Amino acid sequence: MTSDRAGALRVIDANLNRAAEALRVIEDQARFILRDADFAAAAKALRHAVRTALAPAAAALLEARDAEGDPGRELRTDGELARESSEAVLDAAFGRLAEALRSIAEHAKRLEQTASAVEIIENARFRGYALHQAMRLRGAPRRRLRAARLYVLLTADLCHDDWYRTAVLAIDGGADCIQLREKSLSDAELVRRAAALRELTAQRGVLLIINDRPDIAALCGADGVHVGRADLPVGDVRRVLGPRGLVGVSTHTVAEFETVLPSGPDYIAVGAIFSSGTKPQVAPAGVTLIEQCRTRTDLPLVAIGGINAENAARAVRAGADILCVCGAIIGARSPRDAAAAIKAAAAPPAEAQGSTPAGGLRV
Question: What CATH architecture does domain 148-352 belong to?
Fold first, then answer.
């Protein structure tokens, strides 16, 4: 083996290890700090792709390794010895990943029969950029979503009282997320209401989701958008909404659920679970739909349709993380009391005793 070839192999070997180590840090951050299975799976898939791309050269890389003779093994900078936050840890790991993958690609070009490997490594580098952006910008909203229990649909025509007062009272009763769902308002009025709700929810620490309209959500700074199966695809919604926003999708059957999963939503709504006064024409699927979907993903499951204080616990036991309620809260004489009753009925025993679980309603 020539010294030039051996040197190239040593560069690739060192950076392959560096990339794998960075991806392990990223995966651990996703699993144990963000508690996000999707981000963890993406990091794991990246690590597998990089290792697989260079698997044919594994023996040669190992033979060329010279850890003891590496003159840079003891080099450190002051910045490497301290991290101010988990975000700083994440940023450093993604920085190492990008640098390592770029070095691998450049030096692999010097070797024979590595064109396909170089292409995979370059693709992995850009996947890393996208994952970094998603974890940094959507990580916090997704943590808040996973901690949510009660999600209230707000439609003025279904409210017993003024729509804004209803939102205030629902939040007073424990709503963690408000979705503005208005199909017939002018754009100007929709923006006005969205802006008013954004100010309210931001003050109260509550998520705001806009139904169907990523443009309106982006204008008012909402936390996300909810779409139906016939609306814009998840990818198109993200292009309008921007990388920070959450995207949820409605599904009514297991088949629809499985079709939606690969598109990468942040949560999926399933239902109608029970008979609904809001949509009496929709046949209820029952809690079996929740049970079947629960086995297919770790994404937050939002149960919707006919949920009230009497049946909320059944949806939770079936695997729902979040309960989406419309008429039983906004149509009640006291939205605050109705929201509080549903949230209390669905709370796991530990929470009812004053100990809040790490996230979601799953029991």
Answer: Alpha-Beta Barrel (3.20)
Let me know if 181 is a catalytic residue.
yes
Q: Where are the domains of the chain?
A: 3-140, 148-352
| 279 part of the active site | yes
Mapping DSSP onto H, E and C, the string for the chain reads CCHHHHHHHHHHHHHHHHHHHHHHHHHHHHHHHCCCHHHHHHHHHHHHHHHHHCHHHHHHHHHHCCCCCCCCCCCCCHHHHCCCCHHHHHHHHHHHHHHHHHHHHHHHCCCCCCHHHHHHHHHHHHHHHHHHHHHHHHHHHHHHHHHCCEEEEECHHHCCCCHHHHHHHHHHCCCCEEEECCCCCCHHHHHHHHHHHHHHHHHHCCEEEEECCHHHHHHHCCCEEEECCCCCCHHHHHHHHCCCCEEEEEECCHHHHHHHHHHCCCEEEECCCCCCCCCCCCCCCCHHHHHHHHCCCCCCEEEECCCCCCCHHHHHHHCCCEEEECHHHHCCCCHHHHHHHHHHHHCCHHHHCCCCCCCCCCC
Q: Which of 181, 204, 317, 362 is flagged as catalytic?
A: 181
Per-residue pLDDT tens for 114-168?
Answer: 778 899 999 999 999 999 998 888 888 888 999 999 999 999 999 999 999 999 9
18 is a catalytic site residue: no
User: Sign (positive/negative) of CA torsion 308, 295, 244, 227?
Assistant: negative
The catalytically annotated residue of 149, 213, 244, 250 is: 250
- Report domain 3-140's class: mainly alpha
pTM of the complete model: 0.76
187-199 residue pLDDT tens: 999 999 999 999 9
3-140 and 148-352: identical CATH topology = no
Q: Which of 83, 279, 294, 362 is catalytic?
A: 279
